[in-house]
Each structure stands twice: as structure tokens, then as C-alpha cells.
């Protein structure tokens, strides 16, 4: 099997609760989250990354649409807010989330962030996969994510790399 891994690094969220305090002491108003997700590529499923369908003979196995990029992003945002992880809010045992678009999960996380007066300042993600090549789809992914988070796409960085044939991903063992 082949897996796709995504890590969301450098996600910064800022509080909008007290703008004066933010300008005097940004350290107390900023939080950083980290998200990570991995799913197996399997036959018979569509491949969705960053809310964008990617042409490929396999898709990601999971309860929802298994969009590893958006799952890692949700985890990063939830972590920065101190709100646990995606499994706490959208458990894979809940039939309401079977087959759901991960864009809907991100929308829910964005609404939670808004209610708590937080906003994303920037995010940086890395997708690790031997295949497929996702570079041509990155601008569309950034636009979809930006639309949900209500931030400029320029504040979203999505990188793609392979493991150069090394390890269990590169050797297609799991």
C-alpha cells in the first residue's frame, strides 16, 4: 500500500479579543499549532487533497473523504486553540461524518475559531507522497482553503515532496 502523509507546520493564529494588547505584546496573543495525518491509498476511492479532486487510480481510505491535507490543517488549528484534535470533534464512529467533505470539517473548525475570536495568520504544510504529483493542483488547494478560512491565499503555503523511495512510504509497504 501507499500512504500520503501531511504535516502542517508554522500555523499561527492570533487572538482578536484585545487588539491593543496584541500590538504591545504579540507573544501572548499568538499560538502555534501542529497537525499531522496519514491515510492509505486504496482502490475504489476518489483522491481529494485540499478539497480538490486529484486524478489518480487510487484514493485515500477513511471514514470521511480522508483528505489528509485538510485533516492535518484542522488538527493544527484545533491544537493551537487548545481544543484537542479532529477525532475529538468529528469521531470516525459517528455516522454523520461518513463520507463528509473535509471542507465541511474545516468550516466547522473555522466557525469554532471565529467564535473564540481567533484567526489564522499564516500556515505552512508539507504533503509527502511518492505519487501522484500534486504540484499543478496546489494553487487550487490554497484557494479552497483560503475561502473557508477567509484569508488571502498568499498566507497559505503548500509544499509537496517524496520520500525518495526510502522508508515504508517509498518502498510502498504501508
Q: Report how far the terminal alpha carbons are from each other.
A: 5 Å
Order of helices and strands: EHHEEEEHHHEHEH
The percentage of residues in β strands lies in: 25-35%
pLDDT below 50 for ≥5 consecutive residues: which ranges?
A: 1-10, 21-27
How do the strands line up in the largest sheet? 5-2-1-6-7
Report the average pLDDT across residues.
Answer: 82
Number of strands: 7
Please count the helical segments: 7
Query: In angstroms, what is the radius of gyration?
Result: 16 Å
By secondary-structure content and strand pairing, the structural class works out as: alpha+beta
- Classify the helix fraction into a percent range: 25-40%
Largest sheet: 5 strands, mixed
The backbone outline, from C-alpha atoms, is globular
Structural account:
The protein has 174 residues and is an alpha+beta fold. Helix content is 33%, strand content 31%. It is built from 7 helices and 7 strands. The strands form 2 sheets. It has a 5-stranded mixed sheet. The protein has a two-stranded antiparallel sheet with strand order 3-4. Helix 3 packs parallel to helix 5 (102-115). The longest helix has 14 residues, at 68-81. The chain is globular, with a radius of gyration of 16 Å. The N and C termini lie close together (5 Å). Residues 1-10 and 21-27 have low confidence and may be disordered.
Structure characteristics:
174 residues, alpha+beta, 7 helices, 7 strands
What would a concise description of this structure say?
It is globular, with a radius of gyration of 16 Å.
Amino acid at each position: 500500500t501507499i500512504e500520503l502523509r501531511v504535516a502542517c507546520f508554522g500555523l499561527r493564529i492570533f487572538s482578536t479579543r484585545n487588539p491593543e494588547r496584541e500590538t504591545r505584546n504579540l507573544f501572548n496573543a499568538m499560538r502555534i499549532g501542529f497537525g499531522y495525518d496519514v491515510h492509505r491509498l486504496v482502490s475504489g476511492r476518489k483522491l481529494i487533497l485540499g478539497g480538490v479532486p486529484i486524478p489518480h487510480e487510487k484514493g485515500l481510505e477513511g471514514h470521511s473523504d480522508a483528505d489528509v491535507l485538510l485533516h492535518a490543517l484542522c488538527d493544527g488549528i484545533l491544537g493551537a486553540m487548545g481544543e484537542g484534535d479532529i477525532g475529538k470533534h468529528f469521531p470516525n464512529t459517528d455516522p454523520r461524518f461518513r463520507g463528509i467533505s473535509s471542507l465541511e470539517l474545516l468550516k466547522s473548525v473555522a466557525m469554532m475559531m471565529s467564535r473564540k475570536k481567533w484567526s489564522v495568520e499564516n500556515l505552512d504544510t508539507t504533503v509527502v507522497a511518492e505519487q501522484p504529483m500534486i504540484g499543478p493542483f496546489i494553487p487550487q488547494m490554497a484557494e479552497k482553503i483560503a475561502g473557508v478560512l477567509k484569508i488571502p491565499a498568499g498566507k497559505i503555503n503548500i509544499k509537496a515532496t517524496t520520500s525518495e523511495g526510502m522508508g515504508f512510504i517509498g518502498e510502498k509497504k504501508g
